[in-house]
UniProtKB/TrEMBL annotation:
Entry protein name: 2-oxoglutarate and iron dependent oxygenase domain containing 3
GO CC field: membrane
Cofactor: L-ascorbate
Annotated GO MF terms: dioxygenase activity; iron ion binding; L-ascorbic acid binding; oxidoreductase activity, acting on paired donors, with incorporation or reduction of molecular oxygen
InterPro entries, per database record: OGFOD3, Oxoglu/Fe-dep_dioxygenase_dom, Pro_4_hyd_alph, Pro_4_hyd_alph_FE2OG_OXY
Species per Swiss-Prot/TrEMBL record: Hucho hucho (huchen)
Pfam families cross-referenced by the UniProt entry: 2OG-FeII_Oxy_3
Keyword Transmembrane attributed: yes
Keywords: Dioxygenase, Iron, Membrane, Metal-binding, Oxidoreductase, Transmembrane, Transmembrane helix
Ranges annotated as spanning the membrane: 38-58
Fe2OG dioxygenase domain span: 205-304
Length: 319
């Protein structure tokens, strides 16, 4: 039997093996780079998203804002009205036909008070608050009761400063204050279809000055959500007259309606009046001021004549 030989087994070429190893390493490196590049791309995209969200948060001030009802740069010639369902709060109080809210809502107008009048009222507030002021970020001046923030407490400006008040305020200041209050009352009555003679000014009605100073007492913590009708049972309609401009005089400090489906904001503008029914349908807060100083007047109204207050007048001093 003849056995055929096929020759000696072929010995692998060392150079070929080295080339294969290098090619394999190159493929693995390329694969690793593709994975690394993919991971890097994910990181870059994630950072971009985080950066965008951070910018939006800082730009908006309030991350839960879903709608801006009116911006600072807009001029609202006719009241811009947003109706909402009335809460049951009013059922817990005596009803006054022709006044107690039947239609509830919120509205904004720039046509009841001129910018010049707002600036004059701001100067009045600045002079009064310059006499004292809170240690924290929120100070008030109430021309009706005379309450003025001083450090961590309040003083009666008329008693504390006596005859010096005539160097701070003038009869013209009080005349303008009364006239503006009357116009605000008139636009509220017209918008909510009320008998204006059944709507009364009530307390507290006051000037406010808010800045970014850290709060020292509970009175300085103005930013907490609240309901005016719950805080002050006499309130039926609340209004704010802004005396400074959002974005120019201050940042933050927007007025925020906290609805169940999102927040709605009002950007302050000197001379702008924002007003609303005072019940739970208008839960609200003020955004914390982050820079500058925000001036405003809160003017409150009731349907209950037992809680009515008179307009302030220039105090009579002895000669």
């Amino acid at each position: 039997m003849t056995i055929q030989r096929r020759g000696n087994p072929k010995v692998p070429d060392a150079n070929g093996i080295e080339k294969k190893i290098k090619r394999g390493n190159a493929l693995r490196q390329a694969s690793a780079w593709r994975v690394s590049r993919g991971s890097l791309l994910v990181v870059v995209v994630a950072l971009a998203v985080v950066g965008t969200l951070t910018w939006l948060y800082l730009a908006s001030g309030d991350p839960y804002t879903t709608e801006t009802l009116v911006r600072q740069a807009e001029v609202v010639a006719q009241p811009r009205v947003y109706t909402v369902d009335c809460s049951e709060d009013y059922e817990n109080y005596k009803r006054y036909p022709g006044c107690t809210p039947q239609t509830c809502g919120r509205a904004i107008t720039d046509n009841s008070v001129t910018r010049e009048e707002a600036m004059a009222l701001r100067r009045l507030a600045e002079r009064g608050l310059a006499l004292a002021g809170s240690d924290g970020g929120a100070s008030i001046l109430d021309l009706h009761s005379g309450a003025l923030s001083m450090g961590k407490q309040f003083v009666n400006i008329y008693r504390y400063f006596g005859e010096q008040i005539t160097d701070v305020f003038s009869e013209e200041d009080f005349r303008l204050y009364r006239e503006v209050r009357g116009r605000i009352q008139a636009v509220i009555a017209e918008t909510f279809d009320l008998d204006p003679s059944l709507l009364y000014l009530t307390k507290p009605t006051f000037f406010s000055r808010i800045n970014s100073t850290l709060a020292k007492t509970q009175h300085d913590e103005y930013w907490h959500p609240h309901i005016d009708k719950v805080t002050y049972g006499s309130f039926d309609y609340t209004s704010l007259l802004y005396l400074s401009d959002y974005g120019t005089d201050f940042t933050g400090g927007r007025f925020i309606f906290m609805d169940s489906n999102g927040n709605r904001t009002v950007e302050p503008r000197a001379g702008r009046v924002s007003f609303f029914s005072s019940g739970s349908e208008n839960l609200h807060r003020v955004e914390q001021v982050s820079w500058g100083t925000r001036y405003a007047i809160t003017v409150s109204f009731t349907c209950d004549p037992a809680h009515a207050i008179a307009d302030p007048t220039m105090p009579i001093t002895s000669v």
